[in-house]
Amino acid sequence: MSRFGAKRGRKLPGQEFTWDNEPGAEPDTAPTPLFPKYAIPHARTLNPQEQVQVDFYRDLRERFHEGPDYSVLNTASTAARKGEAARANFDPFHGMQSYSGKYQKKQKTLPTLQGRRFILKFFPRELWRVIQPNYKAEAPVDGYLGQMKGAGLKRGFEDDELEEEEPFKRRRGGDDEEEAEGEEGGEKDILEEEEEEQEEEIVDDDFEDDEDEMGGDYNAEQYFDAGDDEYGDDGFADGGGGGGDEDTF
Amino acid sequence: MTSSESGGSTAQLASKLYDECLAKFPPDHLFYQQDLLGLGVVPKNDLGLLLQCTQWLVDQKLFRLLQGKNDRLSWKLISREDAEKLQSLSPDESLVYNVIHSTGRSGIWVRAIQNRTNVHKSILDRCLKSLEGKNYIKSVHNVKYPSRKMYMLAGLAPSEDVTGGAWFTDGVLDANFINTIATYIEYTVSRKSWFEVPSSDGPRNKRIKTSSGAAVKQDAEKEYLAFPPGYKGYPTVSMITAAVNESGLTPVRLGEDSIAQLCDVLCYDNKLVAINGGEFYKSTKNPEAVKQEQMRKESNQEPADTSRELVKNGMTEAPCGQCPVFKLCTPGGAVSPESCEYFGPWLEKALGF
Amino acid sequence: MSSQYASEICTLLVEDNFGELFGRIFSTLLRYNRLPLPRLKHYSGLSERQLHYGLAAMIQHRLVFHYTAYDDGITYYEANIQFSYYLVRSGKILEFIKERLGDYAAAVMSTIMLLGHAQIGYLEDLPELNAHHPISNGVTEEGDVDGEYGSIKEAEDPEGQEGEEGQVNGVNGDYAPSGPSGLLHPTLKTLAAHGYITRVREAHFQSYSDNVLDAERAVKSRPEVKQLKGKKLEEAVLEKTIDLIRERTDGDLTHGLVFNGVPRGAKRSHGTEADGPNKKSRLNYDSVDGDEDIEENEWSDDEMVGDVVPMQLSKSGLVVQVNYEKLDVALRNRRFLELAEKDASPVTSHIYECLLRRIEYQTRCCRDTAEIPREGEEGEQYSAPISLTAVVEEVDPKLDVAGSIAPKDISQPFNRRGKRPLEDGVNGDHHEGPNGVASEGNRIFDIDQHLSLLAQPPYNLTSKRTIGGLTTWTVEFRYLARKLRHLELERMVEARYGDVAFRVIRILHAKGKLDEKRLQEISLLPFKDLRQVLALMQAGGFVDLQEVPRDAQRQPSRTIYLWYYDPDRIRAGMLEDIYKTMSRCLQRLRFERSRMKDFLEKTERSDVKGNEMRYLSEAELKTLQQWKAREALLLGEVSRLDDMVAVMRDY
């Protein structure tokens, strides 16, 4: 009796409502195991139709993975949150480059936008410059701008606003690039900076190309190229940490 | 003397009246004054004399006085044997007996007898004991009020309201009996719900395939076809009842109500389907499938793969579907998809490695 | 709007298919619902560039909605939970397309999925779709994918020009029958005609509520609406908003491609019945090429008239996407067919399939309301009626429709091959064809009989309607969708608690609230069993107990306890559990993968891939094969769970 009492005192809340009131099951007074035994169901094997479905899924997924959009987060990137010990995760055994590394699947940290045809009107203006590097507000690009205007007119009630918005938004696009370096940009900063940066926007036009040539701040390529002099200065900090041990697939 | 004489003649006349009633009317008949006068036994339709006769018969427990329509007096016959029984009773016993008698096949609760007779509890108990001892009444079990003590005449079978129908034995549901009959019904109905292709036609080559590409009927030894819509040959409740009663499975005759009740249950079990709002019943499985299923149940085997698939869906077969710690499971928690101890065996079970 | 577990599974799906960057953006948007770029940057901890690139690519895949406010010009981003969820159904859809329209159509569809949305002109340039030999099995060789993106750059300008020229030729019917682009256009048209792909509209990139706001604003600014006041105004706005949204989001491409209720390029269902040699060439190119002239023109004409945006880009500028709504209709029909196959003969099922197919052509989406209505509050909704003759047309003429229904009178001698004498003489003048096939009249009658069989309980899969003396057949969608739902729930109950529970649930469902005694009377179950199973089910949340006190004191002894079963509530809870289970399967898959990471990375090395036999040892090959099987089972499980989600949420 007293034993029961003592147990009851320590009972976890809700324990009395657990799975053990199956007929014939003994009352559970012992500490609950993390994974109590139960009759694990038997899964049917996939029928041919399901197998085809799964194969299609896998195939499409693989095409996504091989495609331009699959991108991982690079722990060594500037975006790694403080406190997240990216470097502590570095695996000294597998993080090192090896010869066969050059065959290893390369992982991008940014989708490849270059060389794809985007339909501008489906995207918000602040991204137009991203997807169409040579986009200029004034000149119709591939006729899309004309379309955009047409579409704008179709809406009817907001043409005026639209016209006004245009330069404003483009400016924002320019700013964003600046922001990329300075981490903690907020809305207010942008608004303030807008005034100053107005002139600079032309310069921003080749912002895309720059990025691509530099390869950005991620290091997929670097990693593989660096394979020869793997004991290079920042081999550990940058190259290895980024490419090797990200738990992604 | 005259009184005794007249008493004698009244007795004779009354006996004659009783015999006439017995001869000319069914035993259950409710007699009104006209019926009795119409027998022509009482001379000159003397109402006073008639009253004397009936009173005598009532005293002799050969007649039971009742109140008929519009508060008219009416009587019912009591058989001579019963009358003898009754004559031997004390007035209290007689009172109690009559109350119990009046409730017929429904029986009556002890407390209700007390209310109606106003007899003291101890006397009532004594009366009941003595009546039961003489085997005039019996106590019955009412399914609706299992805790109440109830009585009815010994010779009567309790009504279905009391017993809960044919499916109860002593107020307890007789699950085995029900299952036996249910199994029988399913098979019987099934045999009449499907057309068995005469074997002379030979097993058909299965050129018809379902969209999934799997032939529905594999090497069909027996092939069954559905009857056309509007088919009238499906069994009705009365046909099923007759079949059950002839089957020798039931010691008592089962009524159509009971069978209909069981058929409904079978519908809930998805074994039968009511057609035309219950006019006919049709089984969902063909006889062969019914047989296999029932054999499987009898031998308590693991369900065959095919029948097991019917109760399977994504949830029932996933290890999480019935997982005891499903609620606690979070990625990164103590119980998590990574630490899960069920996935491993689950994969192994299905794949064999 | 989105629950915890729905969010979890959608994020996992996005991550599984597109990697962590998308996953991070997506989960941040889900958590904060709607964010402008700077806030998104702040919450996600990603760089501006990652966001720019990520968002652009995600919009391309319609995983993210965007909306630019009219007043402040700020663009907001929002996760598109529907489309992200549909990633899980891709395999099922592709398999369906393959079964219905063949391997090449599946390959085209897969490519459209791969691209998110795609311009026809762009598809024309893809080498993988224009290869001389259609890719077998709908599976692309790995090399092709790389090649595809490599070639895009070159293809950009001059090639695009050529593509258009090819088009022009096509209009004139100058296709080389087996030429590279000979397949693409007919296939696209077939897909469009079936409604499996639709035109992409700008409104598709905004969430539904944003579209409502936009449309409302537009409607309110119309002069004729401005004049209205009070209730009239409300009504007018409501009605016109709906109209406008419909107009703006309408991507229907079937117009002019459907003839007599049959989409262009549709193959008769009996096409799939054909065996051996025919199977490979399911796509009937001959017939497609045959009427190329006319239809090609219709396609383009329709294009010009129907499009709101003037097409300066030639018709190849048309942008298409997968129409999941319509595919849900098709997949739902498959489930109905499965129900039929359970009990009915193969012939009957085949005829049902024919009816369903005709119905599918005329059904745009599974239901009108956004949410599944509560039980009992749902009206009837019949499908388009299909005339009996149309069904007959669809049925394989070689199918023996007579021999699979028993004679009405058992005493009659029974003969196969339709020689059964028709005792009721529905068609008096029946005479048999030379080879014993029943006459046309009998055939129609027999097919009608099969459909009548399906109309019977318990499933009532069809219902007959006579419209103006013409026999038609329809399907009551809502009833059947409910039926599917109930069957899933019942299946769960039966699997978890046994057949006693199954009976109890079905009784409670049919009868409503019952006290224990009444429940026993109906179920004919011993009290002990009954109570036990009720208690278990209550613990599992499948049944509930309502207390009805008979007096104000609410004494337990003076209280009636009623058991009831509420499928709506259970469905909602179940859906969450299913989402969670799907997530767990995917997470486990990820974990299993990480356990074999080194090995799998080796198999994916560019030198090993495709040359597994050469580079891997026997043991490794076996490990790889086992891994594939394990992955397939887990993914298959997810797909089965998705079947349930579809039933509980989409159908």
Outline the structure in words.
- Chain B: DNA-dependent RNA polymerase catalyzes the transcription of DNA into RNA using the four ribonucleoside triphosphates as substrates. Specific peripheric component of RNA polymerase III which synthesizes small RNAs, such as 5S rRNA and tRNAs.
- The complex is a heterotrimer of chains A (249), B (353) and C (651).
- With 249 residues, chain A is mainly α.
- Chain A has two domains: 52-110 and 217-243, no CATH class; 120-213, no CATH class.
- Chain A contains nine helices and no strands.
- The radius of gyration of chain A is 28 Å and the shape is elongated.
- Residues 1-9, 76-88 and 139-249 of chain A have low confidence and may be disordered.
- Chain B has four domains: 2-77, Orthogonal Bundle (Arc Repressor Mutant, subunit A), CATH 1.10.10; 89-164, Arc Repressor Mutant, subunit A; 172-199 and 219-299, Arc Repressor Mutant, subunit A, CATH 1.10.10; 313-351, no CATH class.
- Chain B is elongated, with a radius of gyration of 33 Å.
- Chain B is mainly alpha-helical.
- In chain B, the strands form five sheets. Chain B has a three-stranded antiparallel sheet.
- Chain C is mainly alpha-helical.
- Helix content of chain C is 60%, strand content 8%.
- The interface between A and C is large, with 96 and 99 residues.
Keyword list:
heterotrimer; A: 249 residues; elongated; disordered N terminus; B: 353 residues; mainly alpha; Arc Repressor Mutant, subunit A; three-stranded antiparallel beta sheet; 46% helix; DNA-directed RNA polymerase (chain B)
How would you concisely characterize the structure shown here?
Chain B is mainly alpha-helical and 353 residues long. Chain B has helices at residues 2-24, 33-38, 47-59, 80-87, 91-102, 110-117, 121-133, 160-163, 175-193, 237-246, 256-268, 287-299, 305-310, 314-317, 343-351; strands at 30-31, 63-67, 73-77, 108-109, 137-140, 150-153, 168-169, 172-173, 194-196, 224-226, 272-275, 280-283. The chains are: A mainly alpha (249), B mainly alpha (353), C mainly alpha (651).
